[in-house]
Prior knowledge:
Elements: E1 6-8, E2 41-43, H1 83-97, H2 101-110, H3 115-122, H4 127-137, H5 156-167, H6 171-176, H7 193-246, H8 252-273, H9 279-293, H10 301-327, H11 343-367, H12 375-405, H13 409-441, H14 451-472, H15 476-495, H16 501-524
Antiparallel strand pairs: 1-2
Amino acid sequence: MSGPLRLVPPGPAASAPSPRPGARPRRRPRWAEDGHDDTLVLRRPAPVHTADPAPRPAGAPPASVRPTSRVGGPARPRWAHDPVDELIADRGELIAEAVHPDEIAAVLEADGLTGEQVRERFGRRDTFELAAELYARVPRRHPEPPPRTDPWAAHPGRFLFRGLVFALPGLGYALGSPFLSGPPDVLGLPAGSGALTASALVGWAWNQALAHRAYTRLASGGRAAAGRCLRLGAPLGAVLAWLAALLLPAPGAALAFAAGQSAYLAAATALLVLGKERLLPLALLPTAVGAGLTLAVELPPWVRVLALLATVGAVLTAATRATVRAIGTDPVNDAAPPRAASLPYGLFGLGCAVLTTVAALGDMVRYGAGAALAGAVVIALTLSMGAAEWLLHRCRGLALAALARSTGPAGLRLRAARVLGLCLGGYLAALTALVLTTHALWPAASSALGGARLLAVLALGAVLWTGLLLQAFGSAWPSAVVCLAAAGAETAALALKISAPAIVQLAVCGAASAVLLAFATALLGRITTHR
């Protein structure tokens, strides 16, 4: 008759193989230190013939109550020490951080634990069975990712400056308003307004596409490639915008103003792409001073013309010098993208230009020249572009942080939606403050601000911001198609005299912003978007 199971130390363990190349150094487990294996294993002793049975430890179950072995033969009693507990104590942190049992099995094999040793020391069939048990017994404790820097962090002061740069050219219209006198044009607008509007629409669309292409050339071929792109594209865009003004009847002074407007937009685009936007306020200084003087005195026409020409000449000189210096830099390998890649950016610019124009001139076209110009709305939208750009950077940075904190697709989608709502809400709050401020400072130059008009402006701002966000993530076609469709709907409603322009704008831009928000939410909720 064989006696009860006893725990005895085994003999020396076989030497563990060396770790595989590239594996991180691991501390030897306690059961494999010093070339000697101290793990206790189960062995059945030789039969002992005695009249008195061996004494049983206090609290141990009777010999008739024994668990079934995992791999054949009787297993250790429940009161016996389990070597798996020692393994958990030795490798507990690594086991808790594992994401799959196979990861634990790989670590055990790298430590030199063989299948035979698993069966002898732990009573399990193989390494994978042991790893699965360890994975089930130890709770998961995934480590937090290390702190990282935000690649999209940017100081808001820079973008506030850019907002001012975007808005300052509007002073040129105040300085050149006497040159837009005469009988109303075909739409009932002041003389030359149609020609200036056509020129601005073409220039906006062209320069939006040109900026995208120049930025891509800057990224792929350096400043030299961007300079070559701007050297050809900027003058061509200025000529096309001025030709658009010639298609509509206008006095000569208005056509001259359109030529200066086209030249300024092309040169400013070049300076912005090349990072020389700080030169724009200096170039605009004559116009700003002249516009400020008109508030106190009546300036003669030649002073107005001289101030406008000084601004155009200064910006053209600065853009030419910056472009020539960029072309003179050392070129790099330039893999120029196809020109068609910039098409949706130009179409988006055209749609935004039409929506903004309808917001500014809609009441005058609908009700005649006696209606007020919504100039304060345009000023507020222009100034808000600085805050819009900063919040686009914040949105990208916060989206990356949301990706780092998410443990699954559903969590990422939820956090991305929160980030999107937070940033869009911040932009709309800034736009609201700017609209209220401009209406308070310039009440005579804008129509009355009611609840419907304010909501319409906010809906337009949501369309512009979400469209820019989609473009920033490389999804340009949805924003282009939606903005063009919204522009077409508002233009058709204005031509057919359907309801008030503010009501139409609220309905159309509200629907367009909802569609763009759905696209943006789905885009930010995908892991591959943030690569």
